[in-house]
Design goal:
single chain, 189 residues, alpha+beta, SH3 type barrels, five-stranded antiparallel sheet, binds zinc ion
Length: 189
């Protein structure tokens, strides 16, 4: 295809675009000129298409070769379990990770960030209500808690941050986020 294109290009360039006027001088003929340019464009397209096809074929060959190399280098089977590296067990991974949210709190009045240990807002001076933060190992079930709108109740079960609380004024236990609860009386161990 490239050869065809090149041939076409040469042929178009060699084309005589002038015609004899009979007086001895030659005049360029617009029709022939346009035919030459058509030939140039067509041949050029053929040439470029050929180049692209050859390029694609080269890329495909390279990919094929790469594929066989990878396949040849890949291990045929996984080593037996005893030879595999032991899974990395880091005890710190099982601990809850500290996040920015853990280390800070937000002022309820001005929404300024404060460190978790702060007792007063640095911006507006509001005193922070200190809430016991439940941790693993805390005995929570059976504790008396207070909720700002539901009143007092007793924790019946805990799942993560959520506690099932049977409030004194309600018949069914309600799932409550721990952060809304303050301890009135912690259950004894
Ligand atoms: Zn504040």
């Amino acid at each position: 295809m490239i050869l065809l294109g090149l041939f076409g290009l040469l042929a178009a360039l060699a084309m005589d675009t002038s015609v004899s006027t009979g007086i001895g001088s030659r005049v360029e003929n617009i029709g022939l000129l346009s035919r030459q340019s058509n030939g140039l464009i067509g041949s050029g397209l053929l040439f470029m298409t050929g180049c692209i096809l050859i390029g694609l074929a080269a890329v495909r060959d390279a990919v094929d070769r790469l594929g066989t190399t990878i396949a040849a280098n890949a291990p045929r089977t996984l080593p037996p379990v005893s030879q595999r590296p032991a899974p990395i067990s880091d005890s710190s991974d099982t601990q809850p990770r500290a996040t920015i949210a853990d280390a800070t709190k937000t002022c309820s009045k001005c929404y300024a960030l404060a460190s978790a240990a702060a007792t007063k807002c640095m911006r507006c001076g509001t005193e922070f209500q200190v809430r016991p933060i439940p941790k693993n190992g805390d005995v929570l079930v059976g504790s008396r808690v207070r909720h700002p709108s539901f009143g007092e109740g007793e924790i019946e079960a805990v799942d993560g941050d959520t506690a099932m609380v049977r409030f004194d004024k309600r018949e069914k236990p309600e799932p409550m986020n721990m952060s809304y609860l303050t301890f009135v009386e912690k259950a004894a161990l």
